[in-house]
Amino acid sequence: MFSPRRISGFEGLRRRIVDEMLEGVWREMEERGVVEVREILQKGSLRNVVESVFGRCVCLEGEELGLMVKEGYELISKFNWEDYFPLGFLDFCGEGEGVISWREVQDSDIPNLPYLQAIVKEVLRLHPPGPLLSWARLAIHDVHVGKFFVPAGTMAMVNMWAITHEGSIWKNPWTFRPERFMEEEVSIMGSDLRLAPFGSGRRVCPGKALGLATVHFWLARLLHQFTWLPVPSHSVIDLSECLRLSLEMKKPLACCVVRRKSAAII
Ligand code: HEM
């Protein structure tokens, strides 16, 4: 299911879902004058994963399977990992836009959108959704790592968040600057341990290509369709984080949108 062929076969599904999300965004804007993006994106990504995995539409409101998936998400997000692993907080302000053209963006446009890809990399660097890689890593014999001695049987937990904010690795690590990835090619697929938001090695995320294809395509469509603006009464966007199932915004993002007159990003 994670082969490039299957992933491109899901383009229609990704398009249907993003079309619905775009409608949802506009409806909220018209009805409430403000868009709370988290719920719209969560519903869309849950549906995307469930339909990609089960190959059919699972009604998340009624069916037993749908209810189980939904409950699983809700239960696990109640567990606040930050109570156990303090991560601190961060702030940044930045934005980026693609190049506007007339037709609707497609999967095949993504390789020609390097700045969009750089934005996604920079977001994954500053806010890795899985900041602590899985703890399925055990030292099977005594080993020295730099100046540290790691005895056999030690469970290792990789703090990717700390690596992606490390000043000796990243210039101005707290600054949102997608251009850094235009200046230097850095793979995010697990071969470069400075930035491995999908992990690395045997336990690397199997959904990384599907995840990236979805994020690139949806971001392109959301940027193409609307200009995104802060809510006038919120002068500063609070980017504090909290760790639940994944790293989330402590205060979910609310914004205003204006429809663009022209069409697609290319
Ligand atoms: C932007 C999207 C995603 C991000 C940032 C992400 C991130 C991660 C990370 C950091 C890990 C731990 C890797 C390690 O410890 O080395 C992981 C594991 C995993 N991910 Fe993802 N993931 C994403 C999307 C997906 C999708 C779409 C699926 C499936 C449909 C998926 C399924 C899994 C599974 C099953 C594992 C456990 C692998 C194992 O332990 O062997 N992920 N992911």
Report on the structure:
- This protein is mostly helical and 266 residues long.
- The protein has a single domain, classed as Cytochrome p450 (Orthogonal Bundle), CATH 1.10.630.
- The protein is 38% helix and 9% strand.
- The strands form three sheets. A three-stranded antiparallel beta sheet has the order 1-7-4.
- Helix 2 (11-32) packs antiparallel against helix 3.
- The longest helix has 22 residues, at 11-32.
- Mean pLDDT is 86; it is low at 81-98.
- The site of protoporphyrin IX containing FE has 18 residues, from helix 8.
Describe this protein with a few key phrases.
266 residues; mainly alpha; two-stranded antiparallel ribbon; globular
TL;DR of this structure?
This protein has 266 residues and is mainly alpha-helical. It contains 8 helices and 7 strands.
Chain-wise SSE layout:
Blueprint: H1 4-9, H2 11-32, E1 35-36, H3 37-54, H4 64-78, H5 114-126, E2 143-145, E3 148-150, H6 160-164, H7 180-183, H8 208-225, E4 226-230, E5 241-243, E6 247-249, E7 254-259
Antiparallel strand pairs: 1-7, 2-3, 4-7, 5-6
The protein binds protoporphyrin IX containing FE (HEM).
